[in-house]
Amino acid sequence: MDRDTTNQSVAVASRENFEGKLQSLEEFIRASLNILEDSSLERSKLEEMQRATFNIFEDINDEEERLKGIHRATLNILEDFNTEKSMLEKTQRASMNILEDFEAEKEKVEVINQALSAEVAERKQVEEQLVRHTTKLAEVNKELEAFSYSVSHDLRAPLRSIGAFSQTLLEEAAQKLNAEEQEYLRRICAAAQQMGQLIDGLLDLSRLMRSALLIQPLDLSQLAQGIVKELQQAEPQRQVQFQIAPQLVAQGDPRLLLAVLQNLLSNAWKFSNKQPVAHIQFDASDENGKTVFFVRDDGVGFDMAYADKLFGAFQRLHGIKEFPGTGIGLATVQRIIHRHGGRIWAEAAIGKGATFHFTLNPERKS
Length: 366
Known about the structure:
Blueprint: H1 3-172, H2 179-210, E1 216-219, H3 220-234, E2 240-244, E3 249-252, H4 254-271, E4 278-287, E5 290-297, H5 329-339, E6 344-348, E7 354-358
Parallel strand pairs: 2-4
Antiparallel strand pairs: 1-3, 4-5, 5-7, 6-7
């Protein structure tokens, strides 16, 4: 083989060898590129895994925070539960105490109910007795009224005879009688007249005490003015200055309170008759929110040591010759005032006049 052929063969072999190496290099490059591509993919995957891992860590942190929050909430719930438990225990103890108190109160109420039942039964018996007594009292009042009129009639007849015969004897036989005998007859006539007045007073008192009260508004000043006019007409020669306060109003029975004012003003008129110019006052004052009426005079007055006798029937602090009367007037006044739920009292001094105070309670309708 010639050199050219040999060189050509060597060249061909070298070229084939070079092409083989070049092909191997290309394959290596392609493999490297594939490896690089795979590496990029793996890197991307690793980055994604890293991001996912970071997200997982973030989620784990969030979850940890949530768990911590849940833990704190659980602790708060446990604390609230313990508080509620304590409150429930206190409520339970309070309920037990209430139940104990309720049982104690129940026992007290049962005792009270038993006492009330006994009281109701007793009150019922009292009411029944009161009804019986009221019925008997009504019967007694009727009998007393009949007896009073019977006594009045039986007493008046002999009194009229005594008075009439004594007066006739005094008039027709005066010439035959000496002065002492005539004085005896005059005393008999006066005693008969006084006895008649006593009977009238007792009957009036009895009627006043039995009659029902008729409570209504009254102008006491107007009633007093009418009484004053009658007194002045009866003794026009008397010099008496009256001071009647206007618009003295009250609640009461007009007939009975008229009798009160008649007695008090008539007494003031009678016991001030020794004064050249007498002064009589009817007025009212306020004492602790209570209206107190009063009749005042500047007459002879009386000793307060005997004031407790003033309102007794037939009680007199002055002689009948000096100041005539039956001794029933103030007893009548006191009973009327008491029926009106009020009270009456007097203040006086010998030679310095007297003042009679009285109150009224219109709510009382006995």
